[in-house]
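yo, Exosortase is done. seq:
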Amino acid sequence: MSAPSAPSVAFDAVAVLAGGETLASTLQATLPIDALAWIAIAAFGIALLVRRSDIALPARPLAGAAWLLFGVYWLTMVPYYYADAQSPLQTVLALAALPLCAYTGYLLWSGRDSLFVLTKAVALMGLIYLPAETIPFVRQWLIETTAVQTHYGMELLGYSPGLSEGTAGYESRFAFDPEETVTGRTTYIVLACTGLGSMAIFGGLIAAVAAPLRRKLAAFALAIGVIWLLNLVRNVFIGLATPWGWFQQDVVVSFVTTYLGAEEARVSYLVAHNYVSQTLSVVALVGITYLVVKLLPEILEPLEEVLFVLTGTEYDLETALGADVRTDGGPRDP
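structure:
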């Protein structure tokens, strides 16, 4: 969810270039970021197809190159997360993505074929997310539907600001009267507010593993349902905290404006969005993962690969969590 000032639907970040454009928007205008993402996902797919043809050796360097491209894509997102979104968590993760992706590619190139299941999961995540990112009518439907549902959640709490035009002409902006609110600001829904990113993560993981279709569908329904509900709660929280100044206490304002360089009127949005919500989102993802594992232990296999990339240590999550099914889909030994 993004937070414009009351008279504007866009907020210029701290890094402003000549002509009033942000650093991130300038980079995104000059670099084919969406194209880079599509190329990386396509390279993942080609590597997986080559591997299925039983020619394992050529697939490894191709998959390794795809991982490197994927890391470069996330590096191009750093200016946006740092300057526009002002999100420390997302900035750090985007910075870490390049070395982690490069290392994953190196491991694949060196013969760790077990990483192909993680490669497949990431490719499927991209196929779920990128169409919504790049196809206008899909993006518009997701954003406007989420805005309507969020507004309904606000109405349940006694607030009814109405919806007005936000970015790209979508009916996604919560039309609070700036004369009646504490900060004079409001928010509007963007694609990141739809929960699609988290849904794509679980969709890719679930689709990538070998397991009975019935359990995969059950795990998918559980993950999507919980993400949808929690995302609406998050949107309502941010959408109300921003105009009504839930975090405009003097000590909070002083800290955020002094050490983070934020505008005073934007403090409640930044605290609600970048700190409270993003921290709780990490907790929620861990909790959802635990629930999904109970239905589909097979997703432990790509998760073990993630842990190996991060730590260099082999983990047996199947045994640690007492899963009833092996990560390859078979029953556990008695």
